[in-house]
Design goal:
Layout lengths: L1 H7 L18 H10 L8 H7 L9 H13 L2 H8 L4 E4 L2 E4 L16 H8 L6 E4 L6 E5 L4 E5 L3 E4 L5 E5 L13 E7 L4 E7 L3 H10 L5 H4 L3
Parallel strand pairs: 2-3, 3-7
Antiparallel strand pairs: 1-2, 4-5, 4-7, 6-9, 8-9
């Protein structure tokens, strides 16, 4: 539904911020959609768990079990795709990373203090950076002196031309912000704005597929 909505919004390009796999019942199908559309994709912490088995020890028990079961489902082609992803991408003079810039798939933005955040902005040059990982939409604004962090609200947010931003797009599949619709953002380069979209979909059907696949039941109930 997110891809259909993006198509209807006439976006010119898409980037996937990682964690294509890990909680859902159809990992090969999800990867196939990404590959068919040639959507540039960064490595999420779940893809990292496939590429580097030692990272599994850092996942919580539910996420670890989910990922272990997911690996068993993946085709050789899907495994090759997942393990070949880069930790970050730079495109359209913007940076894309799953966790925290400049290139971490694993660091959560909520673990970063405002003082450390200023240092992070100094580690890369792009004006905008898009992230995921926390499953909560957020916008971090930096004017060169002060960091301001806010919830990214549904709808259009205008950007300041003399400011830099880290924009957390939320989550398509496992939102944790109290709203169970799928989230994604559209960056309007012409108007210098970000639009957070909330997309409804058949949650019950997805939840039933998760349970049928034998994945941890919380993967299903958390969608509700």
């Amino acid at each position: 539904m997110v891809l259909k909505d993006a198509d209807s919004s006439f976006v010119d390009a898409m980037v996937c911020l990682g964690d294509v796999i890990g909680y859902g019942p159809e990992p090969n199908e999800a990867i196939r959609l990404i590959r068919e559309r040639n959507i540039p994709t960064v490595m999420g912490n779940h893809e990292l768990g496939v590429a580097e088995c030692d990272y599994m020890d850092h996942l919580n028990p539910i996420a670890c079990k989910s990922l272990q079961m997911t690996i068993e489902m993946l085709s050789e082609e899907s495994l090759s795709f997942v393990t070949g992803l880069e930790h970050f991408l730079v495109s359209h003079d913007s940076r894309f990373v799953h966790g925290c810039p400049p290139d971490s798939p694993t660091i959560y933005m909520f673990d970063i203090s405002n003082v450390k955040m200023k240092n992070i902005f100094g580690q890369y040059k792009e004006r905008l950076c898009f992230t995921g990982h926390t499953h909560n939409p957020e916008i971090v604004e930096f004017d060169g002196d002060f960091v301001v962090r806010s919830l990214l609200k549904k709808g259009v947010t205008s950007l300041g031309k003399d400011k830099r931003y880290i924009i957390n797009a939320g989550s398509v599949g496992q939102p944790r912000d109290g709203n169970n619709r799928a989230k994604y953002v559209i960056w309007d380069t012409a108007n210098d704005s970000i639009e957070l979209k909330h997309i409804s979909y058949d949650i019950e059907s997805v939840a039933n597929k998760i349970l049928k696949a034998g994945l941890p039941s919380i993967n299903a109930t958390r969608l509700m």
